[in-house]
Design goal:
single chain, alpha/beta, 5-stranded mixed sheet, 33% helix, globular
Length: 440
């Protein structure tokens, strides 16, 4: 009987764990907190002041992080992030932070340094990760000012779609739609890049720019901020790469404005003299910045459409053809990362959704609760005194994800509508477009 059971387990490929890995982790963490078979962890090893506003934190990685990130996937891509779990006064907090630089490469402040100590430490950077952040907010302030060197933090491995690879995926998605007009406008390794950042939205751009320039991509950076950030670094990159241009828009200095405006507008984009319809646009910042971007690209699109229609007048064959073939939209060129989740009125208006966002009822099926919502589901629940799970509040960490049983929601980041049935959604990004039932 026992031999038969053994043959069944061998045939099925099942191998019972005599000692559970979780138990090994538990015992090992008591002996050495940094050690783990399964949990990625980071140990703070250094802080670097990048500017008056930005501080870089450098972390050593444990074996689990190294195996899952470096050994299995070769590291990360420019524009990706990690989630850090931080304990402050006995309360667990999780935040997402952009990774600086590229894997297993020295960071620019080491490349600029000529001291023996800087040269000696270059080898240590091969299996470290570095994030950049502003010392604002509870967790960021703790990390930049109070956490002791050597403090250990559980973390995720690098992830996120704010990457150059996403441009290829976007092109493939358009091709799969069997749209002949759009197929001519797919992006490739030589497509120009326009990177638009607001404030600390510059942090994911650091790795993106470095990676793009390594692949000899033409890159234009536009950074809106109250002061100049990393100006010497941008000067260095521009001197090394003729294909890199940058515009630092100090919102307090009219001399730095693009298109005679302190805010991002259509004239600002046109002033760059870029082939916008053939340019991939990455943008990261607060809702107000992204609202301006959506409004600007829509105005440019409307102007281009009007120009095309006027050129086609008198050519009936071209007019008929233009109605049959889908037209490329400048919005198709956008890849967005956003900070914050407030659905500001100007953001709604700029995205062309003011008329279709109304108050609807959201039912939490398991809790037997309900609330009214005319903003994101997360914000509306909190305003009604109902606590939902959340982490970064930016659509990144996925901790707010839940199952929608019925009803239609709209993603404020992409503008896409869900189906009316069962779906997995993020409450920090979803606005109810009808009465909604959540499996909560």
């Amino acid at each position: 009987m026992s031999s038969q059971k053994g043959s069944i387990s061998m045939a099925s490929g099942y191998r019972p764990e005599i000692i559970q890995s979780a138990f090994v982790d538990f015992i090992g963490s008591r002996l050495q907190p940094f050690w783990s078979l399964t949990v990625p962890k980071l140990r703070l090893v250094a802080r670097h002041q990048l500017s008056e506003e930005l501080i870089a934190l450098q972390f050593e990685v444990n074996r689990a992080f190294k195996q899952r990130a470096f050994d299995s996937y070769g590291g990360w891509q420019g524009g990706q992030y990690i989630n850090l779990t931080v304990v402050i006064d006995g309360i667990y907090h999780q935040r997402s932070y952009s990774l600086v630089g590229l894997p297993q490469q020295t960071l620019w402040w080491s490349e600029l340094g000529h001291s023996k100590s800087a040269i000696k430490n270059l080898g240590r950077q091969r299996h470290t990760v570095t994030i950049a952040l502003k010392p604002q907010g509870l967790v960021s302030d703790y990390l930049t000012r109070h956490a002791a060197i050597g403090t250990i933090f559980p973390s995720s491995v690098p992830s996120g779609n704010f990457t150059l690879q996403q441009t290829t995926l976007s092109s493939q998605a358009r091709l799969s739609d069997d749209q002949p007009m759009l197929a001519k406008l797919t992006f490739n390794s030589q497509t120009p890049l326009l990177l638009i950042a607001g404030g600390s939205g510059i942090t994911p751009m650091l790795g993106l720019i470095k990676q793009a320039l390594q692949h000899q991509r033409p890159v234009t950076l536009v950074h809106y901020n109250r002061g100049s950030v990393l100006e010497s670094y941008w000067q260095l990159l521009a001197a090394e790469h003729a294909s890199f241009n940058y515009y630092l828009i100090n919102t307090e200095d009219p001399a730095s404005y693009l298109g005679d405006s302190r805010h991002l507008q259509a004239n600002s984009l046109l002033a760059l003299n870029l082939p916008l319809l053939a340019t991939q646009i990455f943008a990261c910042g607060a809702p107000s910045l992204l609202a301006g971007l959506y409004k600007a690209v829509d105005e440019i699109d409307a102007g281009l459409k009007l120009s095309e229609d006027l050129n086609l007048l008198g050519d009936l064959q071209s007019v008929a053809k233009s109605k049959l073939e889908p037209r490329h939209s400048l919005r198709d060129n956008l890849i967005i990362e956003r900070f914050g989740t407030d659905l500001a009125p100007q953001a709604v208006e700029a995205m062309g959704k003011q008329s279709d966002i109304q108050t609807h009822t959201v039912y939490l099926r398991s809790r037997q609760q309900q609330f009214s919502s005319d903003s994101t589901l997360l914000l509306a629940a909190e305003q009604a005194g109902i606590r939902l799970n959340y982490g970064c509040r930016q659509g990144i960490c996925q901790l707010c994800r839940c199952n929608k049983v019925s009803g239609v929601v709209k993603n404020i980041q992409t503008g896409k509508l869900s189906g009316d049935g069962y779906d997995s959604i993020q409450t920090c990004l979803s606005v109810a477009m009808s009465d909604v039932v959540l499996d909560l």
